[in-house]
Amino acid sequence: MGALVEIRSLSKVYERGRQRIEVLHHIDMDVQEGDFVALMGPSGSGKTTLLNLIGGLDSPTEGSLTVAGERIERLTQGQLARWRAAHVGFVFQFYNLLPMLSAQRNVELPLLLTKLASKERRRNASVALQLVGLADRATHKPGELSGGQQQRVAIARAIVSDPTLLVCDEPTGDLDRQSAEDVLGLLQELNREHGKTIIMVTHDPKAAEHAGRTLHLDKGTLVGGEQVAA
Amino acid sequence: MKYLHLVWAALRRRKVRTGLTLLSIVVAFLLFGLLESVNSVFGEAGHTVGSAHRLITISRTGLFTPMPISLEAQIRAVPGVEAVTGYTFFGGSYQNPKQVIGSMFAVGRNFFSLYPELKVAPAALRQFDATQTGAIVGAALAQRYHWKVGEQIPIKAMIYPRKGGSYTWTFDLVGIYHARSPFEEQDFLLRLRYFNEAAAFGNNRVGLFVEKIGNPQGASGVAAAIDALSNNSGHETKTQSDSAFAVDFLSQFVDIGLIMHAIMGAVFFTLMLLTGNTMAQAVRERTGELAVLKTLGFTNGTVLSLVLAESVLLVVLGGALGLGAAALAVHLLQHQIGAALPMMPVGGAIWLRGGTLMLLIGLLVGALPARRGMRLRIVDALAGR
Ligand SMILES: Nc1ncnc2c1ncn2[C@@H]1O[C@H](COP(=O)(O)OP(=O)(O)OP(=O)(O)O)[C@@H](O)[C@H]1O
Ligand SMILES: [Mg+2]
Known about the structure:
The complex is a heterodimer.
Chain A: E1 5-16, E2 19-31, E3 36-40, H1 47-54, E4 62-67, E5 70-71, H2 77-87, E6 88-91, H3 103-108, H4 118-131, H5 147-159, E7 165-169, H6 177-194, E8 197-201, H7 205-208, E9 213-218, E10 221-228
Parallel strand pairs in A: 3-8, 3-9, 6-7, 7-8
Antiparallel strand pairs in A: 1-2, 1-4, 4-5, 9-10
Chain B: H1 4-12, H2 15-45, E1 54-59, E2 67-68, H3 71-76, E3 81-89, E4 92-93, E5 100-101, E6 104-107, H4 111-114, H5 122-130, E7 134-138, H6 139-145, E8 152-157, E9 168-177, E10 188-191, H7 192-198, E11 205-206, E12 208-213, H8 219-229, E13 237-241, H9 242-251, H10 256-284, H11 287-295, H12 300-337, H13 348-375, H14 378-382
Helix pairs in contact in B: 1-12, 2-10, 2-12, 10-13, 12-13
Bound molecules: adenosine-5'-triphosphate and magnesium ion.
Adenosine-5'-triphosphate binds next to β1, β2 and α1 of chain A.
């Protein structure tokens, strides 16, 4: 078995009426299990598009996309939904928590799709919240938490069903330096101590330093080879 | 079931909007309950037990023209007629003019054998036969004025004075009859023989004859034979089946069913626009949240069901509150004001119809927003497109 994520000649084209926008051009890329990859590049270079393809939120126009041994570009929408639930955790720039639900309930969301009984769901969510250091905020709604805390709740939600792969789109983009450091430290810990494979889009070189290596995307193409972290 | 808290949270998201929508649903179903309660009485009127075996004869010139009692014997002799009784309207009020007793009749001795759906104890019937001033009243009427058997009841007549000029008649309550609904327990029945003997005028004339016939199929023939008795007599009659009479009687006033359906149609049309708008808004402003659920692996079908459940829950909640309020209102009206309300209690049949309506409206109103939620593309919604 090869890499956890194996991307071959991947292209994505958006069509708007007669206009064709080729956002990604024949991308080749591997991510090994246990990697922590930072994805950088100018705005509009296709970082989010690539991340969404890897996470199975969107389908490529061309090329193959193998994640955890599954050719996910071949899955139907329903299969893809179930595949995401089992294999990928998502972290977004703006946390994307459900505002009406407590931190605990937000973290439990992915577990609703499993066969776990409500007691086990509650327990697993509590463990995840502990892992991100927010056990004492379980009953708080997102509106009652700081940005950094909300992002940590979002990370707890992303890991609660124990996925192999975490995809994070500018997870520190909306945070101050200190909160950003906390979140990055947490991701690093998840990578090193819990073996999570992480792909993180970021504009912040400091953030990228926490990753094992950094890839650069420019106008839909990976450039400059691979940098190995110090 | 494990998704219920998600649906509930969605409803609580905009408390004021949900509250207002809920209120309008409550009001619509309150109205529905009340109108259905009235409507089912009129529906019932046509389906009275034994009504197929009953004919009613009134004067051709109208309900309020009396006919000679002598006709009774002639009608009894018509082939196909098994029994006949004549009775007359006798309006009156109790202690004050506001306590009008709307349906007060002077009836023949075999009145109850023609209305088997009115249940009265044989002993009370014997008392009625034996007491010149005897009266039998419906249970609901007796309850309203707290009348007990054995009591003397003074009634102020509206039309008929007694010989000597007094309008006050005193009756001895000898029995109470029971029927299927309080609506049918409103009659005050006195003896036609007493009326004929004591009234200053109107004696020996009746407003109605009721006939019992053996074979409902032959009803029209029997009716024609009865009417033939008084051809060219100056008091010609019109004989109809009991249910035809009831419908005829009501439609003298208005086409009640039509009006009710028109009102309910307008109410529910407005309700659907309103609730539909609420749901559309609720889904539109939650696009991001629904996209997150899908990101986490919720399938399109699950998202569709969540939105549908939300609108059904909203309508069922409001509908149940509204129908409950209607049931309570009818109950209070019947038992406290106790008026001779033409209303049936809000029972199983109305709840069933109401419940079906709630489900239908909920599904209908949720359908478009739910489809929108289902079709939502994650990447577009997440990017705010
Ligand atoms: N659904 C779409 N339809 C049309 N064009 C799209 C669509 N999604 C993305 N694009 C275009 O694809 C290009 C890449 O977008 P993408 O969001 O991947 O960039 P990005 O590298 O994440 O940028 P940023 O750093 O600003 O987040 C942009 O030019 C964008 O306008
Ligand atoms: Mg982006």
